[in-house]
Amino acid sequence: MPGIPREKIDEVQAAADIVEVASDYVGRLKKSGSRYMALCPFHDEDTPSFSLSPDKNLYYCFGCLEEHEPVWTERGLVPIGQVQVGDGVLGLDGKVETITHKTVKEGPLLALEFGAVRRDPLLLTPDHTCVAVRRRDALRAVPMLGRSGCNIRFHGDRRAYRKTRPCAIQEIEAQNIRAGDYFLFPVTSKKERHNAPLPAPGPVVPSPEREGGESVPAGATPARTKGPARTKGPAPTTFEALPVNEATARLYGLWLAEGSCYRGGVRWSFHRDETELADFVVETLAQHFGLDASRRPHASRHPRPGPGRLEVTCSNTPLSYLLPHWFGKGAKRKQLPFQALRWTQSMQRALLRGYFEGGGKYVGPRQWQAVCISRHLAQGLFALAIQARRSVSMGKNKRRTAAGNREWAVSLRKNESVEGFFHALDGQAYYWVKASRPRLLGEERTVVDLSATGSHTFTTKIGAVHNCQAGGSIFTLVQEMEGVPFPEAVEQLADRFGVDLPQSSRGGGPERAKREPLHHALRFAARFFYHQLTTTEPGERALAYLTDERGLTEETIKAFGLGYAPGRWDALTTAAESEQIAPETLEEAGLAIARKGGDGYYDRYRGRVVFPLFSRVGRVLGFAGRVFEGAEGPAIGSDFDPPKYINSPETPVYHKKDVLYGLHQAKNALRNEEEALLVEGYTDVIALHQAGVQHAVATCGTALTAEQAKMLGRYAERVTLLYDADEAGTRAALRGMDRVLEAGLGAYAARLPEGRDPDDFVREEGAGRFRRFLRKHRQGIAAFRRAQAERAGAFESPEDRTRTMRAVAESLALVPDEMARENQVRAASDALDMYEDLLRKAVEEARSEDQRKKKRRKRAPRPEAPADGKESPGDEPQQPEEETPAPLPQERNLLRLLLEHGRPMVELILGNMALTEFTEGPARELAGHFLQMYREGEVAPRRVLEGDFGPALQRLAAAVLTDEHEPSENWRDRDINVPRLNQETRKAAASSMRLLKLRRVDAELEKVKTAQFQSAPTEEDEREAQQHVMRLQQLRQQIQRGEFFDWDEGEETA
Predict the structure, then answer these.
(1) What is the distance between the alpha carbons of residues 426 and 94, in angstroms, rounded to a whole number?
(2) What letters, b where the CB count within 10 A reaches 16 and e where it falls short, cover 772-799?
(3) Which stretches within 264-374 are classed as H helix?
(4) Would you call 738 helix, strand, or coil by DSSP?
(5) d(CA 902, CA 939)
(6) Average pLDDT over residues 773-802
(7) Lowest mean pLDDT among 196-205, 355-364, 784-793, 975-984
(8) What is the Cα–Cα distance from 936 to 770, expressed in whole angstroms?
(9) Nearest Cα to 744, choosing from 718, 724, 722, 768?
(10) pLDDT at 1043 exceeding the cut of 70
(11) What is the SS3 assignment for 866?
């Protein structure tokens, strides 16, 4: 199949509006300069980090660091606020990455403390993604770590003989970091290291050697500076670069500790007992720079060294420029160049030796410490020690110097510790830094985030971090949110924004190929019905009904795509033949019905006004047909009372629980109003929109479902239900308010005067009075329930009041957010004249009871087969087979999760369990097929249900899906929904895996004990058995703590 032409892709991108498309997924967008901001749809957050650029049709999501937090760039340690797009930064793999995006905003801050970096927390937003290893994973993977009660102990002697286990580096939001998790600081690999000289920042102008001029060693070139030519004296030695070798690296370390500048020269100041260091400086300057230096106890000119000081001076203007350029000038501005992190370890250790010789002291045991007043220098030495594979820590001292400067201490240790150690993962070495529990700061500050190429990470003073990396074009957004490949994303946007694509370029997978003919048939039907309404003689009566009786304008009719279905039995079926649309396709799309006996098809909608049902992006999914007086054809007869509405059946493209009528037209109004008005009828929605109340939507012939409530939450903060004033309407409103509360939205309801509906009210009273009526009469859940009870006379006795209050508590227990639930409790206590504490207690009891019910439903036993034991009709006779063990309840639960969620659960379950841990038989066989599908690249649970792996596994799959899905309390009102993979589902999987692993360990323990009892073991056999039992008991304790290990090493998993 040919691809989509490049010019067509460009045309779609130019026609598409990313703000409109993104609003389908992120809901409310807020203008921020030339951009739009919203909450990121890819992760949970409280502050907007999702940024849209309408002029470029691009989006990006950022988590941020405080603007003064330093990051490692090619310019050294630079505050993140000063980093620019195009700068190079140190990534997680130790390589240099390029900054591609940068954003600045205001946001809340969280402080992450580390044992190896005292009193200098990492400040970042709670939603920023950190690269870290969980405490439990570190205990499992790092041979040097062990437990001591609740604490972690470090055993350096284990490195030599304990096997390293694989470990996953996780992307964890800062707010979810826990004490004991480890941050990773990358160590540069050998192939990335080099000892290139540090070049001069500007061009060097060479000059010929002159008689009497200075001798020029290798690596130094004589040159003269710009300006008048010198007329006497030797030309000064100018350097193209500072050489890098062990001697000069040590010299640079001494400069960082004791160096300073004076006009035209540099000096090193030592204690009078440090003559060896002074001699080293003089010799190195002569040997590697060709410069003369003098050593003297006292300076004859200002500044004078203090008593007992020894000074080495060297008068050379180029050197007095290059050393401060690379290593800083002045005690508060000393720094370490980024290039030093790429030197070989011998050079790095030489620099550290020089620095600690000049400014450090031995504090023992096997530990050296140096103090400086430059924060960047301390952080640079911390990073350099890591690259030199020296265990290091740093921190801010509590005391200040006499001049009021803050002191920073850097300590080198001979031995590693639990706070910091070296360990490699997947061939990349890291320094592991142990985190403490994060703490929120009660203020907002300017925060900045970066995005880099390659690993999409950048390294802070403490380790590597990055953001969620959600970003791209409008096509990427549709791909990520809809889970479709690029061609289908282009096709969806082309259909939505009216760009014609060549039919030969349309593609997609099997599901796409199956749905596309249905969408084509539905689009044709919508055009056919609209044409019949607006241009044909039979449609004139339907048009008169809409315009005269319903008061709709032509613009409204066109906006909602209203149409007319002719009264003939096969009007649509016959017209579709000219478009090569098969009758079978019309039937699958819900547009036609097969005649009894298989003799042809007839139209589902005949002699009715037709309402197209749109998806939120504007695709036709189905139709609803309404009878009206004066319609033609066989739909109306003297002996037949037809139903008022005929709704589209469930089809592969239409699921009524997911669709809200009018949402496509109401999206912008929902965002502006921050409220959704939910009514019962299609005509109510249309009349309200025409009157200017454009945030109205309706369900499609069903009570409000959880999916519909969640969809409204993308656009609005609250929902007002406006149903009929009769008893049925009140019950529907109460059920709908529960669904709205469960979705985390504000729930309100209002009652129109008896006998009036929104359509009549807004046409007779106008939009202004309608809005005022809603503001005055809408009520929250407690006030609405109380009013309903009072009208029914069921709020008079104590028992009645208790019943109503308990019902309110059960509704409030559905609110997921704790703060929102507390506010609802306060409002409800006022409405019910009830003490807050008493209502709050009732709400918590209702939540606890709901959780217990869910647990009981999960544990409820289910029959394995029909009670009568009869075979189903059509079953083939089975030959007697050897009896195999039935799957355990925990295995049935895991198999259900694999069938429901596919790939994510394969990775979670079969990534932590070997196949041999399943009971031998169908459970193990079915898990094996999932593992095979995972290896082949496509996990398709439907293949099991379609019988691709045999009827036995097909029956098992159907059984486990059935026994775990119970009808909910709202079975009559909404379809059963398969939940998305969330934390609760993961907990269920983890619980089942833990029980299965414990069962296997217990069986092995029993086996060992039985063998001991039944035999007469030797002393050696008894000792080995006891050791085996101890290992099994330790393994059992680890499994109980949630540390899952595959039983058989080498057993293949996902």
Answers:
(1) 13
(2) ebbeebbbbbbbbbbbbbeeeeebeeee
(3) 275-284, 317-327, 345-359
(4) helix
(5) 6
(6) 90
(7) 975-984
(8) 60
(9) 718
(10) no
(11) coil
Q: Which residues of 930-962 are buried (b: 16+ CB within 10 A; e: fewer)?
A: bbebbeeeebebebbeeeebeebbbebbebbbe
Q: How many other CB atoms sit within 10 Å of the CB of residue 650?
A: 13
Q: Do the beta carbons of residue 72 and residue 89 sit within 8 Å?
A: yes
Nearest to 288, CA basis, from 209, 220, 365:
220
CB 1000 within 8 A of CB 895: no
The DSSP 8-state label assigned to residue 400 in this structure reads E
Bridge partners of 419, per DSSP, are none
Q: How far apart are CA 564 and CA 740, in angstroms?
A: 35
Q: Which of 209, 302, 287, 297 is nearest to 251 (CA)?
A: 287
Q: What is the pLDDT of residues 740-782, one digit of tens each?
A: 999 999 999 999 888 788 998 999 999 999 999 999 999 999 9
Give the C-alpha separation, 963 to 191, whole Å.
58
Q: How far apart are CA 842 and CA 845, in angstroms?
A: 5
CB 441 within 8 A of CB 109: yes
- What is the per-residue DSSP string for 503-552? GGG----HHHHHHHHHHHHHHHHHHHHHHHHHHSHHHHHHHHIIIIIS--
Q: Which two tokens stand for residue 472?
A: 């791209």
Tell me how far apart the alpha carbons of residues 181 and 897 are, in angstroms, rounded to a whole number.
29
Using alpha carbons, select from 687, 830, 664 the residue that is nearest to residue 763.
687
The whole-number pLDDT of residue 950 equals: 83
DSSP code per residue over 794-849: -SSSHHHHHHHHHHHHHHHTT---HHHHHHHHHHHHHHHT--HHHHHHHHHHHHHH
Residue 123 phi, psi dihedral angles, 5° rounding: -100, 120
Report how far residue 72's alpha carbon sits from residue 460's, in angstroms, rounded to the nearest whole number. 6
Q: Write out the H or E segment, with its range, that includes residue 108.
A: strand 96-114
Report the C-alpha gap between 281 and 274 in whole angstroms: 11
| pLDDT tens per residue across span 929-974 | 888 888 877 888 888 887 788 888 888 887 787 654 443 344 334 3
Q: What DSSP element (H or E) covers 398?
A: strand 391-400
Q: What is the 3-state secondary structure (H, E, C) of 619-665?
A: CEEEEEEECCCCCCCCCCECCECCCCEEECCCCCCCCHHHCEECHHH
Alpha carbon distance 759, 755 (integer Å): 12
What's the chain's Rg over C-alpha atoms?
A: 38
Domains of the chain: residue spans and CATH: 6-62+473-505 (3.90.580.10), 66-191+420-466 (2.170.16.10), 509-654 (3.90.980.10), 655-778 (3.40.1360.10), 792-851 (no CATH), 889-1040 (1.10.860)
Which tops the pLDDT comparison, 602 or 217? 602
The residue assigned the tokens 């142990």 is 434
Phi and psi dihedrals of 630, rounded to 5?
A: 95, 5
> How far is the C-alpha of 285 from the C-alpha of 908, rounded, in Å?
61
Report the DSSP pairing between strands 198-199 and 151-154. Answer: unpaired
- Contacts of 98-101 with C-beta under 8 Å, sequence gap 24+, read 98/452, 98/453, 98/454, 99/450, 99/451, 99/452, 99/458, 100/451, 100/452, 100/453, 101/60, 101/62, 101/450, 101/451, 101/471
Predicted TM-score (pTM) of the model is 0.48
- Cite the beta strand spans of 168-281 per DSSP E: 170-173, 182-186, 198-199, 221-222, 237-238, 241-242, 259-262, 265-271
Question: If you search the block for the tokens 């009514």, which residue do you land on?
Answer: 679
Helix and strand numbers (H, E) in the chain are 32, 44
- DSSP letter at 82 equals G
The rounded distance, in Å, linking the Cα atoms of 844 and 838 is 10
Amino acid at 820: A
Q: Which residue reads 């000119």 in tokens?
A: 301
